[in-house]
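Researcher: Structure prediction, please.
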Amino acid sequence: MKVEGPIKVIGCGLIGTSLALRLKEMKVDLILVDTNGANQKLAQDLIGNGSLDVQARIVLISTPPEVVFSVAKKEFELNPRAAFIDVSGIKSNLLHQVEGFSELAKRFVSVHPMAGREVSGPESARADLFESRAWIISETNQSSLEVVETAKRIGEIMGASIYELSGDKHDSVIATISHLPQILSSVLGASLGSEDPADLNLAGQGLRDVSRLADSDPELWESLLAGNAKEILPKLTEVINRLSVLSEGLEKNDRGVVKEFLKSGREGRNRLPGKHGSKKRDYTYVPIVIDDKPGGLARIFNECAAINVNVEDLSMEHSPGQSVGLITLALSENDAVKLQKHLVSKGWLAHEPRKH
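Model: Predicted structure follows.
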């Protein structure tokens, strides 16, 4: 899984610097370049910087989508034997451009790491940003096996899960799973602008969760949304149509329409897979009331081990001043029933298993 440096990282924002931090952990020689002097200096202080006079073996391009092609052409003149990998969020137009230059197309592959944060810049970078995230690889029509394998090895170093999609398919999928969520979060955030700040003090976690993406970098997202407009527009039209149906249903006090709107949303969300792209598990939950004393959770896990049941997840709730807390364990249905009966037989306050 080793990659040979030097690797030249062009663009020292969140993604570029996060890539560099992880590569630094692997002792890879790095050259960092950014047109933003402040970003480049901070990234260099975090990571160090190799000599600009050395030819790069790999060029990682982490710039706004609209300048990737011009950067790649310029770098190809300087490093014609390097592998060129960009990490921008839209692909089809870029790949068509690269394919017009056959020598570059052989040395080029496009990657999209499905990771990010609402806050941008090298100050937000993390070496583990890509851990367990999708690493989507899109080839040109001439990408060499060597360059594709290099892109895969870098993804593996990042701890990511490797997927391969054509540029056109990538942009269609990303419009659904990334661009629409950003649009809907932004429109919700914008709707708060006319509200009394005192009223917003009442906001709970739901509003904060749904509007989280609205805090993203407008300059970055302007490029992504405008660059993928062809794929976004039909999907956005569908969303608008669904909202129009809901609006009409509310106006007519048609509860059936409102219920169907909510039901279809729930059904759609339930199609999302579980962790790391695995099939979503249908968990059963066992609530257990325990005394607020040291070692309680450890004793529960000892009981689980004693009867060989596997806990998939857990949550803990404890109100200040209360002498007891609530532990909720997520298990398969069979394990949940087995564990609840076992705990009750041992004197635990384990309640009937339930679906959420």
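Model: The domain at 7-165 is CATH 3.40.50.720 (Rossmann fold).
Researcher: Thanks, that helps.
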